[in-house]
Amino acid sequence: MYRNEPYGSNAYYYAAPVRQSYPISVSPYAYTPAISSDMRFEHFYPPYAQPAWSHHANAPWVHGNLEDTREKQQPLTFVLIHGAWADASFWNGTAAELRRKGHTVYAPEYPGHGSDPNKNVTHAMLTKSIADFIVTNHLKNVVLVGHSFGGSLVQTVAQQIPDRIKRMVFFDAFVLKDGQSVADELPPSTLEAFNQLRKSSKDDTIMLPFPLFRETFVNLASLELAQQIHNAISPEPAGPLYEKLDLKKFYSLSTPRSYLFLTEDNALPQGSDLYGWFPHMANRLGLFRLIKGQGDHMTTAKTEPRMLAQKIYEAGRD
Fold first, then answer.
1. 271 shares its domain with 182
2. pLDDT in tens, 56-86
3. How many independent structural domains does the chain possess?
4. What does pTM read for this prediction?
5. Where is the AB hydrolase-1 domain (predicted)?
6. Is the same domain home to 63 and 94?
């Protein structure tokens, strides 16, 4: 293997041997390499002893920064699905950045969230709402992105209208096994807390107490920002979190899929074989593209929308 290194504002290639290890995704179907955005695909042009770019006068990086070649993005159609304790405004900054790059972006609201006061909803109602939105708006070749709880909706929507979905992107999101509920993937202490919060509510909802929210959902935020985000959330309908889902059709789909993992996301335990986003749930996808970035569960969409938009694009492009 050989390393590419910057040279001024350009990039060049030289034949210095380096050790390189790539992450491996272990799926229930096969042992396959996860394709990661932070992999460096490295090149060598024998028998040149000098930088290879000097032999390629028309190469784009000879005339400017290599980053310039990445500005023009493949135009895509994104449908962004938010998670629990959020509404469609979660995507505002990210959607604006994606649109600025020339993409078509939709962030539909679903029942029991946003301005809808009715919390008596089911997972099937949420699925139908999003699937109907895609069909009614005649959307095709959709990159369907789900965050957190929204991952379970990516699964159910994709199996309802697979012909309209170009790629599925799970962003720190649940990837449930057939017959599971989201609640089944919570560690025992969290599940017990949710059960108690659900039992104490008058409308079958769960409201996250600030100490739990602050340490797990917005761990990178300042105290002031953490309080601001918490004050904006609404109680989450409990029913869809506990529903067991029939996902047999999802696991028969050949639709390409990606997993976007932010490395400081503490909403689920890290480093556990039994719980967590990556690799625990991501590996259920079989062959998938892995994209990593820095961020937590809910702060990053507010504070780093440009970075998040770029990562979502990397997850969604061909």
1. yes
2. 444 443 344 444 445 689 999 999 999 999 9
3. 2
4. 0.79
5. 78-230
6. no
